[in-house]
TrEMBL record:
Keywords: DNA-binding, Transcription, Transcription regulation. It comes from Streptomyces lusitanus. It holds the Pfam family HTH_20. It comes from the Bacteria. Residues 98-117 are annotated as: Disordered. This is Metalloregulator ArsR/SmtB family transcription factor. SUPFAM superfamilies: Winged helix' DNA-binding domain. The keyword Transcription applies. PANTHER family: TRANSCRIPTIONAL REGULATOR, ARSR FAMILY, TRANSCRIPTIONAL REPRESSOR SDPR.
Length: 117
């Protein structure tokens, strides 16, 4: 099972936004704060949680600290979710077959209506 710190880190929408931004490449705290509309102290706190969960790495580049995404914990989470994903797929397929087998199941042939001005 993935580390509870990973779940806690992913639970916050701001941290998920930071991760989405870091997918596009390394960023400084200031760049992350501006892009995610956070104060710099708030961005730093979110980055600390992400670092502690293993999702973000930091490297020094001259005078700047660059933050990068580390996808390894997400891969572990994906591996853990794989059996559930299979179960969901099978359940949804079974539901689709059941709905298709209903006698009243037929394609919707009604024309969409457009609003009149």
């Amino acid at each position: 099972m993935p580390d509870p710190a990973l779940w806690a880190a992913l639970a916050d929408p701001h941290r998920r936004a930071v991760l989405a931004l870091l997918r596009t490449g390394p960023r400084t705290v200031g760049e992350i704060a501006r892009a995610c509309e956070l104060s710099q102290p708030s961005a730093s706190k979110h980055l600390k949680v992400l670092r502690e969960a293993g999702l973000v790495r930091v490297r020094q580049e001259a005078q700047r600290r660059m933050h990068t995404l580390d996808p390894a914990p997400l891969a572990a989470l994906d591996d853990w979710l794989a059996p559930y994903r299979k179960l969901w797929g099978e359940s949804l397929d079974a539901l689709g077959r059941r709905l298709d087998a209903r006698p009243d199941a037929r394609p919707d042939t009604t024309e969409p209506t457009t609003p009149k001005d």
